[in-house]
User: Fold this.
Amino acid sequence: MMEMTLADFLSLPDAVKVRYIRDFAILYSQQFSREDLDAYCRLADACRFLHRQPGGANVMSQLLRHRMALNFFVQPSSRTFMSFNTAQAYLGMNRMSVRDVNISSISKGESLVDSVRTFISYVDLVVMRHSDENAGAAAFWTAMQAHRRLRIEEQDRPVPIISGGSGSQQHPTQALLDIYTLDKALEPIGGIDGKSFMLVGDLARGRTVRSLSYLMKNYRGVQLFFAAPERYQMRADLLEFLDRNEISWQMIGSISEAIDVVDAVYMTRIQDEYDHLATGKHVPATKEFVFTMNHLRRMKQTACLLHPLPKRDEIDPEVDYVEDPRVMYWRQERNGMWMRVAIIAKLFKVDGAILDAYESDEM
Assistant:
């Protein structure tokens, strides 16, 4: 149990929270070292390879067939929900879901803490997507305080909590799959070290770009270009983090300013669901921040185009169907499922069994 109140835990800086979280949960990008990221990428490759081999899918499906997962998604999601649901199925987990607070006791005024305490009485894993940036941390604190423990590798551990997106601040599993995609795409030219990346769109409220930027502390010689209208530019807290970690960054006023020099472009949509003055109409992307066929023609032949999805008008529809291996966002989406298999496997300490089977099949 944690010897502090929920309020005290939530008041801690994220960098301090991760000391308590350790490998019990996945809540913040700041949790991960370079060694962690390399291990996750190798494990995701192993899961992908093993699942395609005769008998390999069966091996994986036996690993967690005695475990139950809950996908608690009270914020809209399709890709992340399906990705986790499929990953859990590949590992043999039983699955339940809550996707509407109106059919849960939260609609009656039950606190999130009490709801999570109820959930972990029944399930062995909670994957959460929530509009409150503190929801994942509150769920972790609850799991740590609860008496129920799982026996994993001769150790009593709390029921693990995974953030599937938390407010406008963090989306750590998306960042892990983005690193996996970049690692594979840039492998022929030496990997992520020493590369330049352009992040485009709503950077102020885009939890995917924030989480990915945090992970860049683990790579050498990286340069970031932030392309956004002034009102959507990256927040000061993230820029201060980059400065503390000596990561080069530059704000620019259009995609065109850096398209010729970057090694990857990461597009995002305007996050107008967070706008309290929203009228119900989507805010369109301005032309300086719409990726076009002309940008694709100018982009390096070794570069790649990513998007966490869903997208709207920030990428020219013609780009979707062009036969160009640099357009990677649909492969990026598929990579997410394999990375989430790896994430769950490591939480439950069955990654060794997957790697052993993988190495055996490789020989």
